[in-house]
């Protein structure tokens, strides 16, 4: 808990509430320094890989069959204090617990911090783990632009880093035997069960699509209805279509528009363009996107506007390694939990046996300042993670 409260003042967002910590901003840089300092205090050897992920090693970084545990430190805009940092702080505390037990890992053990898991700046979630595993093309990554139009390549260069180094690191992946991510629960499943922990079973299919509506900018007061081609109108219809689609596709469907950006965005101006992003999740996200896109197109036509739809990131459903999940369940005594939140563990799972431990969040609220985990449950998570690492590193 001390490790977490260390971060209380880093990246607080007075306008949105909560915290905003994005790749390359001051807050995220402070978090990297904090992690490096905390790892150093524990005698862990810290390195930054070609994709800005941090690795803090206990044992030989070159050794085979390493065990890695960790999560991310970046946040969504105005996010909570636990999504990401709880997994990193718990991993550091688990190292302390192993030390106090007199355990010397029989395999190399790494605490990992993945870069830009939320995609909060450059728009692609799990940026660091996707680049590391080769599931995101480095050229595409270099050209990703943040809301101010700065590319990832420019952002890296301005920090003295080498954008040309971005790309898969198969040797680093090959040295990994297992990866376990501890994460605050997102959604309310453990409170009703009365359980502090759960072992991850699956991660739902999910993705994010950008819809760009183009019309004609004009004066809010002097432009007659008949002369308007207002992209805000089909954009608004699309927001409502996302809700209707979610309701039409059953309980597991999720369709959300949380981000909408008009250009120029003047109070007295009919917009020329509106970008909105659709977050779709469930058994068949593409079916949701198809329905929302159909509604968007017909609303755009009716207003004399055009609409362009672009997939920004798509993730299939992930089944976390069943054998590892069984091991985690045996060690911790915890039940299973499927999640509709994406994680780096879900990206690594295609290359390394990956598992998750979820720590109870009493209200289930996440991606918001009210995200919470009780101290006792956090402590249970650390003990469980230490037990898991002791067993996996035997
Ligand atoms: O968006 C997600 O599902 C995750 O919390 N990054
Ligand atoms: Mn998140
Ligand atoms: Mn997360």
UniProtKB/TrEMBL annotation:
Gene3D superfamilies, A to Z: 3.30.70.360, Zn peptidases (3.40.630.10)
Organism of derivation: Actinomycetospora chibensis
Pfam family, any one: Peptidase_M20
Organism lineage string: Bacteria, Bacillati, Actinomycetota, Actinomycetes, Pseudonocardiales
Record-stated family: Belongs to the peptidase M20 family.
Entry keyword set: Hydrolase
Full protein name: Allantoate amidohydrolase
Highest taxon listed in the record's lineage: Bacteria
């Amino acid at each position: 808990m001390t490790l977490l409260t260390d971060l209380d003042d880093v990246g607080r967002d007075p306008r949105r509430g909560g915290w905003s910590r994005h790749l390359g901003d001051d807050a995220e840089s402070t978090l990297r320094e904090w992690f490096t300092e905390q790892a150093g205090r524990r005698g862990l050897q810290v390195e930054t890989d070609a994709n800005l992920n941090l690795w803090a090693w206990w044992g030989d970084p070159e050794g085979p069959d390493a065990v890695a545990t960790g999560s991310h430190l970046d946040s969504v805009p105005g996010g909570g204090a636990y999504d990401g940092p709880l997994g990193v702080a718990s991993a550091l505390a688990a190292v302390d617990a192993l030390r106090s037990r007199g355990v010397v890992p029989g395999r190399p053990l790494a605490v990992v911090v993945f870069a830009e898991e939320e995609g909060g700046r450059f728009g692609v979630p799990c940026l660091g783990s996707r680049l590391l595993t080769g599931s995101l093309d480095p050229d595409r990554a270099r050209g990703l632009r943040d809301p101010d139009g700065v590319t990832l390549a420019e952002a890296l260069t301005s920090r003295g880093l080498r954008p040309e180094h971005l790309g898969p690191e198969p040797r680093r992946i090959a040295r990994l035997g297992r990866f376990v991510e501890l994460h605050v629960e997102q959604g309310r499943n453990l409170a009703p069960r009365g359980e502090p922990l759960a072992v991850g079973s699956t991660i739902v299919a999910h993705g994010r699509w950008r819809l760009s509506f183009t019309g004609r900018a004009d004066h809010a007061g002097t432009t007659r209805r008949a002369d308007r081609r207002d992209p805000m109108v089909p954009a608004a219809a699309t927001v409502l279509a996302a809700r209707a689609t979610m309701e039409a596709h059953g309980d597991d469907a999720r369709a959300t528009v949380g981000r909408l950006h008009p250009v120029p965005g003047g109070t007295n101006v009919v917009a020329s363009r509106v970008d909105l992003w659709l977050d779709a999740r469930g058994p068949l996200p593409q079916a949701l996107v198809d329905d929302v896109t159909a509604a968007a197109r017909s609303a755009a036509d009716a207003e004399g506007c055009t609409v362009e739809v672009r997939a920004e990131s798509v993730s299939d459903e992930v089944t976390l390694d069943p054998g590892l999940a069984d091991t985690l369940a045996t060690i911790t005594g915890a039940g299973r939990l499927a999640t509709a939140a994406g994680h780096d563990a879900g990206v690594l799972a295609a290359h390394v046996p990956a598992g998750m431990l979820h720590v109870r969040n009493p209200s289930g609220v996440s991606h918001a300042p009210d995200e919470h985990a009780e101290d006792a449950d956090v402590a249970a998570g650390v003990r469980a993670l230490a037990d898991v690492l002791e067993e996996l590193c035997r």
